[in-house]
Amino acid sequence: MQSRRWLSTIRRARRRLAQRGVAASDINVLVAHAHDPPLSRESLFLHPDKLLTPAESQRLEDLTSRRLAGEPLAYVTGVKEFWSLPFKVTKDTLIPRPDSELLIDTLLNLHTKDDPLRILDIGTGTGCLIVAALAEFPNATGVAIDISPAALQVARHNADTHGMASRMICIEQDMRRFDRDMTLHWATPPFDVVLCNPPYISMDEVPWMDAHVVLHEPHLALFADHDGLALYSVLRSPLRDQLLRPGGHVLFEVGFAQAARVVDLYKGASFIQSTRLDRMVVQDVQGIDRVVVMQTRP
């Protein structure tokens, strides 16, 4: 009787979610995460109706209710995959997105995997960019900065989970205010590469954004003044004068229709097109300008 009741809990949760238009993939993830420990994709595929304990049954009810209330799946489960690696996610961090993987793809086109790079990740959040980069470049070391102590705690956790903690440090730092004396201890020597996915959404875009993003993700990591370009502008001088070595690269993620303006900002600050790449703007699979690559003068 109990096994029948717990099986019906799974089926009821699936039905509730499907009726509200929740994707089947989301439903399967919630069912997998109701189990303790969570089931792998393979185990869930082989045993889609694996029985739940009473505690797991209640957990599924709770997870289902949170998802039905509009909470993003990654916050409900506390995990999001990026670069084929699982990352802890909390409401103190943005949810990693597939679009940002283009930064890592571009970095792989700039350097060979055995290069002993020094990499800086500005606005690290979960640490997904720096951890993915270090995973691809085994001789590299990195520094991850963020204004949020809570986000840095998540980044440290993810670095430790993926065996990168010995190769990176996390620093609490406001990307809007780089003081040379404050950065001297972690920006010496200067970096070969800077990765940055800054806040770049204009507040004017809020009416057209998905409600679950506006309601749940940290606004400090989403929005910027001056049509979303404020942080790109602020970072020009510190990148050129303090953070990057001569001939070093900065890789920015940019928002829709921002790439040309970011390129112009950096050309005006004496940055040049990379000598290793035949373009300054890299498009995603949909043909949208997604990454800007600029180089300091060698």
Question: Could you walk me through the main structural features you see in this protein, from its secondary elements to its overall organization?
Answer:
InterPro entries: DNA_methylase_N6_adenine_CS, HemK-like, Methyltranfer_dom, N5-glutamine_MTase, PrmC_N, RF_methyltr_PrmC, SAM-dependent_MTases_sf. GO terms for molecular function: nucleic acid binding; protein-glutamine N-methyltransferase activity. Keywords: Methyltransferase, S-adenosyl-L-methionine, Transferase. Residues 115-197 form the Methyltransferase domain. There is one protein chain. The chain contains 12 helices and 9 strands. It is an alpha/beta fold and 298 residues long. The chain has 2 domains: 2-69, no CATH class; 82-295, Vaccinia Virus protein VP39 (Rossmann fold). A 7-stranded mixed β-sheet has the order 5-4-3-6-7-9-8, with helices on both faces. It has a two-stranded antiparallel ribbon with strand order 1-2. A hairpin with a 2-residue loop joins strand 1 (79-82) and strand 2 (85-88). Helix 1 packs antiparallel against helix 2 and helix 2 runs antiparallel to helix 4. The model is unreliable at 1-6 (pLDDT under 50).
